[in-house]
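Continuing from the previous page...

OK, I double-checked the sequence for Replicative DNA helicase against my notes and this is the correct one:
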Amino acid sequence: MKTAHKATSSDSLAKFVDVYQERLLVTALAHHPAMIAPVQKLLPGTEVFQDEAARICYECISELHREGEIIRPHAVLTRVRARGRFETLKAAKLSLAFDEMAPNKPVEIIDCAEGILSLFRRYNASEFNLDLNKQLSNEASDTELIDTCQNILKVLTLSGLGKLEKSSKEAAMEALGKVNKSMAARKTGKAVGVPSGSSKLDRYTGGWQEDQLIILAGRPGSGKTSCALDFALAAAGAGHPVGFFSMEMPAAQLMVRLAANLTGIEYRRIRNGEVDLEDYKRIENALAELAKLPLYFFDDTAVKDVYRLEAIASEWRRIHKVELIIIDYIQYLEIRGHTKGYDRVTEVTKAVKTMQRNLKIPVIALAQLSRATEGRSDPRPKDSDLKESGQLEQDASLIIGLFNPEYYARKNITLYDEQYGEENKVPFKQGTYCLYLLKNRDGDVVRVDRFAHLATGRFSDQFPGFQPLETNPNYSTPMSSEGNLTLEKVEDAPF
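Thanks. Re-ran it with the corrected sequence; updated structure tokens here:
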């Protein structure tokens, strides 16, 4: 394969060289290491850099990133010196010092890398064109002309792509490794993947798997965030690092909700300061325990660019070895060039799926169900209720529809548990929280019932034995202080 930095004196190739942009890109990467992984996935290798100084810097940045080292301009220059190439940078006056002209935002850095890749492709195409014209002048054979044309197509097609093929031997070894992992997990009684905290759910999913994009879908107020935080708490508590992106709440607010989960003190009370000294001590102890967990939050709710999130997730994966990413929620994400609802969510979904495949870890993306659930007699979720995009259903390995019967009980809407048949009119038990597996690429499509106390964000597979919702018309919130059983009075409470 011809490479873009092959020496040539042709004026026709000079227009495809932009040394300034190449140096700006490596300078930006030295200052924004979170963007290294996305850029590496875009560029085929160091051959795209036609400037020797920029190419040396990119090679050293890639080495440091691969070794898991902290990347700063000084660290890059130190590595350049260790390789005996510092004089090249000095002669080129490339210091990696902050340059206000260098791309600073994730989108700008990606744009810069795409521009360099485009020049690399055009350089190669132009160089092959010169060869082709020379062959035509020399009356080359048809076979030689076809070979030249095939080579240029190969270069242009594969530029920016990694290894695409996998031999049957490689695939077989990978498959055997998965089987061994599954058998080992079964022997210990653990989930094969990252545990959800629900043995009922894990029975059908095997835990969150490394090749899964999971959509957790529900209407506003259905407890999506509480459910996701409970999943995060269970995974981190089992020793699996978790990265949590929230487009709505800062990290401190999420920690308060987790503290409510651990203490059993209602989130509303904590938020409003309605706690006594004993409650405060419990909250303080809970936060101390939470601080020990491998939980990482992206604390900038104003940033919703999907490429920025991918860059941060890649950095978490490299530095913190995160094994699960949770995004709250997917319809909040943005992608440049797409502003309309359907197109935007479709492209965002594709980008999130690509991120999951590149990171090779499960990604749980929360999604909002459409209002169609409210307008029909049976509001139970369906996969067609996913708001604005069929792409969510297509790309997801697992779709879980969340359904909270008590929400409708509070609105005096009588619903019956369909598991007993509609004709029997058996109401839901208090505290029932339904997880409908609307799509399960690797297992059964079933309903999993959990007990939920959304005021504290607590979930459990066990039910404390409340009466049916229908028998309690004044029911407001399970285990509230308004006439219902409190947590302390329930002897077999599952906490």
